[in-house]
Amino acid sequence: MAANLHEWSHACWQIVCIRDYSRVFVLIRVLIDPTAMSDTPAVSVQNLTKIFKGTLVKGAFRAVHDLSLEVKAGEVYGLIGPNGSGKSTTMKVILGLLKPTQGHTSIFGVPSTEVASRHSVGFLPENPYFYKHLNGRETLHFYGSLCGMSGARLKDRAEEMLALTGLEDAATRRVGGYSKGMLQRLGLAQALIHEPRLLVLDEPTAGVDPAGSRKIRDLIIEFRSRGITVLVTSHLLEQMQEVCDRVGIMAHGRMVREGRLEDLIAVENQTEMVLENASPALLAKINALVQAEGGGTKILRSSHPRTTLERLFLEATNETK
Amino acid sequence: MNMSDATTSSAAAMTPKVRFSPRRVWTMAMATVTQLVRMKILAFLVIFCLLAVGAGFAFSVINPEQQLNLLKSVTLGALQIFSIVIGVVSTALLIPKDMEDRTLYTILSKPVPRFDYLLGKLLGVLLLIGGGLIVMDAVLSLILWLRQSMLFEDAVARMHLEKMDTPEAVAQVREIVARQGLTWNLHWAVWAIFLKATVVTTVALLLSSIASSTLFTIVITLCITIIGHGEGLIREFFFQPHLSGWAGRAATLLLAAICPDLAQFDIVDSVVNGEIVPWAAVYDMTGIAALYVTVYLFVTHLLFVEKEL
To answer: Is the pLDDT of residue A18 over 90?
Structure first.
């Protein structure tokens, strides 16, 4: 029911605010079959196997093996794994860029093999490049036009996306002169131009400096608050930890671990307690209490918590402004 | 059918289908034109204009008929080279570059059918070639008209000096100059050049949709272009009774089937010689070009729609 309400409100928002009348279908769909919609995951991957055909020299290569996963509407799902674990292949199959050898994938219930499934999705590939001869604004107009947008609606949406990604000042500059971080933000803007319900981000912070990386992370958190579902891959596990509701860990083309982040990373038999302004006497008392408890209870470590290198970097670089 | 399958089929049935969209094709085409123009690919226009002026005014030792012949021959030859080179190189560059830069991923992850993408790219290149040919046709027409007026006046003045400017002689010179000068035939020749470039560009599109190397596409397309000019010879060779061996026959048949018969569009020599191009020939050329483009585009779509990106 909550998913239904989310679906309804999102569709109404798109119809009223960005005049996307194709969303009327969503409203009708929910009216006709409310039970079906409530269970429709944003992304569904069922028993996916992808084998790349071999050549005379190289044999066939199995990139993904019997993979199943579901991303629920409105959540941020992180797909992590080492290089060559099959993350990007899985994403490409979800987006219809590759065909599955076995199994099937769908986006909000529409099979990925149908072009119509791409109405609901925005994609940011790893290290994206755009037509260098276009400037930032022209690039967004180009992608918006491909999605059927035009006129004032397209112009307003492009300006909104430029503002959201902080590229207003660079809007008239050719994309060929953009830095890596700017390209990444432009990639996010183009992925969002048609107000998708699902964002697929492949290594969104790859090659971006900590400040740019932080900006992208903040944007992902903002997308979640707006009800946009996010499927993201990254090597930067600390960042994934900050934004993801659920994660799936892939290795050798298989899902080896999946679940809610808190459940996966919690150490069940340990408790963390951070004290502020605790006197040495208090610490000694706590220590004594723990020792008196016995039965295997012990303090493993006691030290001052440290800031992260990233936080230190951001504080230091902001001080110089 | 389980619950999940039912949900999927219900959602798929209710989702509006993405159909062919001329507007989307136009968007792709305009982006392609902008890309090529900003790559300064039309610098060739300047070279052509200089060549046309040079061919029109540099040689003054030959008679009016030969001078007009030379002007048309040089400039129409340059137009053929321009259109084919631009068509092949641009097309060979575009799709592999889109794949290499991952621009194709961002485009095809939008609701864009692959056929719309292909047609947009082709249309963009053809718009560029067509636009360039229109400009060059206009420049050529202007120079030809100026040159024929000057040559006629020179010839009449010379006849007047030699006291040979009888009405019959002047009419004869006027008729020669008019036949070799600016006529509709010149525009038909440019149209034939455009049609030939269109067919060659579609062949390049087909090859670039399966090849990952730009160089491969360019070299093979140019080979097909050369073979295509000798398609008649290949057909004759195939039907010769002394040709034995299935391998030779199969290879000849394959070549004849793959390569377009580009000799169908060769009316430039006739136009240079001042012959009149009949309407029927123009219709035939246009129809043949449309057929080739349709077939090649269909095959390209079949290959590209299955391509793993």
So the answer is: no
Whose CA is closest to B75, among B143, B130, B17? B143
Does the complex come out with an ipTM higher than 0.90?
no
Ramachandran region of residue A236, left (φ > 0), alpha (ψ -120 to 50) or beta? Answer: beta
- pTM score, whole prediction: 0.80
Phi, psi angle pair for B251, to nearest 5°? -65, -40
| Strands ordered across the beta sheet of A76-80 | A121-124, A198-202, A229-233, A76-80, A246-251, A254-260
Tell whether B99 is within 8 A of chain A (Cβ): no
Token pair recorded at residue A222: 């903002």
B212 touches chain A (CB under 8 A): no
Beta-carbon pairs below 8 A across chains A and B:
138
Is B2 a residue whose pLDDT tops 60? Answer: no
Q: What distance in Å separates the CA atoms of residue B306 and residue B309, rounded to the nearest whole number?
A: 9
In chain A, what are the domains?
Answer: 1-39 (no CATH), 43-265 (3.40.50.300), 280-319 (no CATH)
With CB atoms and an 8 Å threshold, state whether A125 touches B11.
Answer: no
Please write the tens of the pLDDT for every residue from B127-138. 999 998 998 889
pLDDT at residue B154, as a whole number: 81
Which residues of B fall within a CB distance of 8 Å from A27?
none
* Domains of chain B, residue spans: 22-305
What percentage of chain B exceeds 90 in pLDDT? 28
